[in-house]
Amino acid sequence: MFRSNYLDYAALMAQLGTWAQQHPEFVRLSVLGKSAEGRDIPLLTLGCNPDTLRPAVWVDGNMHASEVCGCSVALAIAEDIISLHLGQASGGAKTLPPHMAQALTGTLFYIVPRMSPDGAEAILKTGRYVRSSMQNTRVNKGHAFWQAQDINGDGMAGYMRQQDSNGDLIELRDEHNVPLDPPVMTARMPEDAGPFYKMYPEGVIANFDGRRIPDPYFLSDNQYDFNRNFPYSWAPEQEQAGAGDFPGSAPETRAVMEFATTHPNIFTWLNLHTFGGVLIRPLGDKPDSKMDPTDRAIFEQVEAWMTEHTGYATVSGFHEFLYEPDKPLHGDLSDYAYHQRGALSYVVELWDLFTQLGIERKKPFIDHYQKFERKDVFALARFDREHNASRIFKRWQKVPHPQLGEVEVNGYDPRIGISNPPLERLAHTCETQSAAFLRVAALTPNLVVEVVSQEKVDARLTRVEVRVANTGYLGSYGLASAKAMPHTEPLRMTSVGAGVKVIAPQQAVIEIGHLDGWGAGKYGGTSIFMPWTRGNAHERFVTLVVEGTGTLLVKVGSCRMGDREITIRLAAEGYAK
Fold first, then answer.
1. Hey, which CATH number is domain 447-576, 2.40.40.20, 3.40.50.10490, 2.60.40.10, 1.10.10.10?
2. Is 14 helix (H, G, I), strand (E, B) or coil?
3. Angle at alpha carbon of residue 239, lines to 233 and 241, rounded to 5°
4. What is this structure's pTM?
5. What sign does the CA torsion over 376, 379, 383, 385 have?
6. CATH H-level superfamily of 9-125+223-351+419-441
7. Pick from 302, 328, 297, 298: which is nearest to 313 by CA?
8. How open is the CA angle 486-228-202, to the nearest 5 degrees?
9. Per-residue pLDDT tens for 458-480?
10. pLDDT class of 482 with cuts at 50, 70, 90
11. What is the pLDDT of residues 280-335, one digit of tens each?
């Protein structure tokens, strides 16, 4: 149902539980942590032998409560991976070349479809606005602020409007100067005649003095923006709204950080949001000139797949997605994943609303949100009527308000059509996003350990040559910028004998170092003008001299790559592995 509807918490957990029950050999459902209200934050691990550490891919959705499409896309990616394990490629997986599909069945997937279960449940059940979580542990609550509340008893707490001679909104009028039906609110311009309106959250004013109405604020009664609560370049509340008391002070973000810290094998990180129809890549806090050029080349390949399969634009977070010029975002998840976890990480703002409304590409991309003109509001009203079953704009209903007198409620609902795609377009969003991302997920490194040759030196000694290779796209370190990180340790080889003794080399551990991948980005490899390829930095050969007969266990790995093992039997004549 997640491809045709937005799931509440019970339905989400039922879907995850069904997969885990049906496919226990490669689907595991566990708990990442607890939300502020005590709900389990589900973690789905996909892959054969899920406890065996190896290169992994992370997908998270719905860290912002209203952005429930991210949960649907995360579930679609999970379902498509399950289909690959069953040999029945579905959804976005149907477009994969066979070798890429095969690579994905050897990769681990960690999928957190809903990071904000409390907030999403409130959004879906009551329509109220929540940025991330319902939690509000602020100590400063003595001022006047808006609290969401159901005013007319219908179980919803959306938006309300009130006529006001100083209002900054009017009802949109057609070419005959007749208000649209149902009404559509738009910004008041100097030449507009009344009536004028103000719009507030449906709710009441805490600490109301009977006179001053506070400005509505997206974090009035909910404290956190999870995407400001991560540690990289974190800044306090006075500099960045929603930051929280300290990095990881929200239990939901703390759970993500703890898991990521204990799982250095995450090479790729997809952070799903809505809306806009855009991929936002690093760097978020610096210009492209400060980015590792090798990293940039790989992101150009990601961009090509995003364009091919979704039509979405790809932009630099610093150059095109700052809400205020020269004021980078702080404490966001994708920067944390890139700068501190060394992952190929990026944000996708799902649902290309601007394209659907016929709005031409703006630069910087952030202008789509900040320069939404009246003609665009007309286009949105038409789109809602013709393609969204009129879910956004409805007729307002007059009700008495305990503090403000007569108000009107339920005339505006942005959840489906603005914040998330229409239900009729959800399946298309799921399939195209999965098709693009699964290609990126297939770029993980792949460690191979094999015996190249074995020969008797004399009656008691045997020489064994072992090849250690990375046959994947990315290097064993991941992105080039990740090489310096403490958890990106070099590969090492250990050999343990049973009935045999390793004579040379004498070290118990042999450092293999890092192994390059074969990929270099869309434009980073060989060209018609410079046709030479690289050498063989993707592999290393180690010669072992072993005394006796028995078995030799050779293990190669690191905390980031996991371990690969081979067992070699050494006999008086010949060998078997």
1. 2.60.40.10
2. helix
3. 95
4. 0.95
5. positive
6. Zn peptidases (3.40.630.10)
7. 302
8. 160
9. 888 999 999 999 999 999 999 99
10. very high
11. 999 999 999 999 999 999 999 999 999 999 999 999 999 999 988 888 999 999 99
User: For residues 100 and 77, what is the distance between their CA atoms, to the nearest angstrom?
Assistant: 15
The tens digit of pLDDT for each residue in 182-220 reads 999 999 999 999 899 999 999 999 999 999 999 999 999
- List of residues 6+ apart from 463 with CB closer than 8 A: 453, 454, 455, 456, 457, 543, 544, 545, 546
What's the Cα-to-Cα distance from 512 to each of 25, 480, 540, 541, 559, rounded to whole Å?
33, 18, 7, 9, 14
* 3 state SS of 301: helix
Residue type, 391: R
Q: Answer yes or no: is pLDDT of 65 > 80.
A: yes
282: tokens are 């690093």
d(CA 547, CA 566): 18
Is the pLDDT score of 14 beyond 60?
A: yes
Please, how many CA atoms are within 13 Å of residue 468, restricted to the half-sphere of its CB?
A: 28
Cβ neighbourhood burial of 459 (10 Å; 0-12, 13-18, 19+)? exposed
DSSP 489-502: PPEEEEEEEEEEEE
Output the DSSP codes for 462-483: EEEEEEEEE-SSSBTTBSGGGT
pLDDT at 514 over 50: yes
Q: Please give the single-letter amino acid code of residue 368.
A: H
Kindly state the helix (H) or strand (E) to which residue 452 belongs, with its residue range. Answer: strand 447-456
First CA to last CA distance, the chain: 48
Please give the pLDDT value at position 572.
Answer: 67
What type of residue is 149? Q
Domain ranges within the chain, ordered by starting residue: 9-125+223-351+419-441, 136-221+359-409, 447-576
> Which tokens is 448 given?
């191979």
CA distance 537 to 452: 17
Long-range contacts formed by 104-107: CB under 8 A, 24+ apart: 104/438, 104/441, 104/442, 105/47, 105/48, 106/47, 106/48, 106/54, 106/446, 107/47, 107/54, 107/55, 107/56, 107/57, 107/441, 107/442, 107/444
**577 confidence band (pLDDT: 50, 70, 90):** very low
CA 555 to mean position of chain CA atoms: 33
How far apart CA 355 and CA 473 sit, in angstroms, is 33
- Cβ(230)–Cβ(333) under 8 Å? yes
Residues 475, 444 contacting (CB under 8 angstroms):
no
